[in-house]
Amino acid sequence: MLYESTRGQVRPHSFSEAVEAGLAADGGLFVPQTWPDLSALLPTWEGLSYPQLAAQFLSRFAPEIELEEWQQLTAQAYSRFAAAEVAPLVKLDERTLVLELWHGPTLAFKDFALQLLGLLYKRQVAQQGRRLAVLGATSGDTGSAAIAGCMGQPGIDIFILYPQGRVSPLQERQMACTGAANVHALAVPGFFDDAQRVVKDCFGDEGFVREVNLSAVNSINIARVLAQCVYYLWAWLRLPASQRSTAEFVVPTGNFGNVLAGWWCQRMGMACRGFRVATNHNDILHRFFSTGEYRQGELRSSHAPSMDIAAASNFERFLFEWQGRDAAKVRGLMARMKAGEVLSWPQPQTSIRSSRMDDAQIVQSIAEVWRRWGYVADPHTACAFTDMAPEGVSVILSTASAAKFPEVVAQALGREVTHPTLEALKGLPLRSQPLAAEPAAVKAFVRAHLGA
Ligand SMILES: *Cc1c(COP(=O)(O)O)cnc(C)c1O
What we know:
Distance between the termini: 38 Å
Bound molecules: pyridoxal-5'-phosphate
Low-confidence stretches: none
């Protein structure tokens, strides 16, 4: 299996090369060159544990890593999850199920990919015999998950920029209270976009990238999407066979990474009814799927902050597939978008539909889900509970523990929800480094703290 760019102007890459590169050199995103047909194989995977299923699936996408090594990697990656099933499928009623994706170390679904990515980095260090510096910017959940995946790993230093005062106090504690010498949480002034720009500038300096062996952690790495495919297959296999084709997956999504993985599984033979993209008021994806217009709006912070995006970075992978894998066409569309043009089509006919919730609706939804089922949903998950399919089963992907967003949940339920992992953080010393939002400052900091 090899990987090509959505913009078609790089040579095919192996899995390891694509993981290491992150973004393709032509500015595109890596996608598998072909889709394996898993339809006959899937039923034979029914009895596998989550790590075994992950190993079977991922070994098809990265044959350069032997199945046996994949089994070790996935067993280790998911051993830190608190739930025995890794991703429990909870039944609210006969037609409504919740797939809980927050039993990993940082209590949000990004652990599924980043626990594994941390181990892939470690493997890379062993193979290259060189230290690796991992650099990324975060609005909260990605940074803490990346840190949890890399902390204490020999040969790796991780540097995460976050906008000072604009991540939740708990998210900041998850990044800055690890006590691990190889973890550096860097607080920069401004917004997430400012932090992101500084990181991009650092990657634009090829000499620096080579000097410190710099690797990016962001939402577009191919390993992330492939690791996320596994929980769709897992949930689908837990359904009675007669219900599988009726299932609609409801997916809180921002950058389109979460739902893309499921849509790819459908292309590989996971027969289901389809998907619903659940957005907050930053609703570019909802507007696209309901009208065909892809128009960047102004970013407004919301009660579901991990879905606060103006444009969805993984959408390009959807476009590529939807436009018949025509890289020249994608290049043209991305250039027009970059020039500020609004893209529009007739309403898309796909297996994906969409919904949206504003902040007031999110609070109501949390209260309603509690009243109806006695279940506590976090603000991202709450966005899913609307516009349910009239028939078949709905599988709602629950992306974070409600305890990560205590203020909004308290507003809805009139009480605090807590989680022991987060409570334990409150007593630990916070070690965060304030830094100017300047590439020179970041590069100097990285150089000074390699192997510290
Ligand atoms: C990141 C995140 C999302 C959105 O995921 P995408 O990959 O952007 O689709 C949803 N919920 C939570 C809690 C998240 O951390």
